[in-house]
Amino acid sequence: MKILQSRMLLLLFTSVAMGCVTQMPSNKAKAQIAATNLSPAPIKTSRKEYLIAIDPGHGGVDPGAVGQKGTLEKDITLAISKKLEKIINSTSGFRAILTRDGDRDIALRNRVRIARDNEADLFLSIHADSFKGPEWVEGEAGVEGGSVYALSRRGASLEAAKWIEDKDDLTASVLLDLSQTATIQASLELGSVVLKQMGLVVKLNKKRVLQAGFAVLTAPDMPSIYINIASISNPKDEQRLNSTSHQQNIANAIFTGINLHIKNRLN
């Protein structure tokens, strides 16, 4: 961690030398970096296993999207998340945690906090959204297929204001921006590989990783992606999502993407 923080400071000193930043790092800024455990390369090489945080979307009184035949998003996301957890925990060098393992409510920021408290290397939020498209009319099936999102720069900028207590400390702001930029890039790389693997088992409604300001994606030091496995509002997707074998195929595809991403990052 000290090496990673030193890299961030080196980047900042370079910016100072080039005239991009008019302030040298303050002791308070360095303390903020340590306190928030920021890192531009969250994959940890000091331990023997990679920890993957899996977040089954919705839960409890929040059912999420509802299919035309009454399938609840919260049930599908939990079922697939548990299958993914089992795959990960049965693979040497990997371990998984769930932000929820039953039908209960968890605030969005608490989901991220659970992952960060456990020092997760990656965060995956699993969803099966209802997406009907701008021209949808009552009675139509709606959009079919899945997609993957990473955090947008706008979302990162809004989150930065919540992480930096002293808004006048330019140094701390720059350090946080460096971490967020690296984390977003890692998230896009992770999302791209996972999306490609998903495309082998599900129809995709978007062929590239999208970006948005979803609250579950806002950790500045942990690559995070929002995986929309299908559009539950589409009858074909809803039927497939209720298939145990299809759920297993999705979980297998997601893990393959995770594994390939980690190998790419370490090479």
Overview of the molecule:
The protein contains eight helices and six strands. It has helices at residues 2-17, 27-36, 73-89, 108-117, 153-163, 170-198, 235-241, 244-266; strands at residues 50-56, 94-98, 122-127, 147-151, 210-212, 224-228. It is an alpha/beta fold. The longest helix is centred in the last third of the chain and has 29 residues, at 170-198. The relative contact order is 0.19. It has a six-stranded mixed β-sheet with strand order 2-1-3-6-4-5, with helices on both faces.
For this entry, give a set of tags.
267 residues; alpha/beta; six-stranded mixed sheet; 46% helix; globular; disordered N terminus
Mean pLDDT metric: 78
How much of the residues is beta strand, in percent? 5-15%
Helix fraction?
40-55%
Topology as H/E string? Answer: HHEHEHEEHHEEHH
Task: Show the helix and strand layout.
Blueprint: H1 2-17, H2 27-36, E1 50-56, H3 73-89, E2 94-98, H4 108-117, E3 122-127, E4 147-151, H5 153-163, H6 170-198, E5 210-212, E6 224-228, H7 235-241, H8 244-266
Parallel strand pairs: 1-2, 1-3, 3-6, 4-5
Antiparallel strand pairs: 4-6
Helix pairs in contact: 1-6, 2-6, 3-8, 5-6, 6-8
Summarize the structure.
Helix content is 46%, strand content 12%. The chain is of the alpha/beta class and 267 residues long. The chain is globular and about 45 Å long.
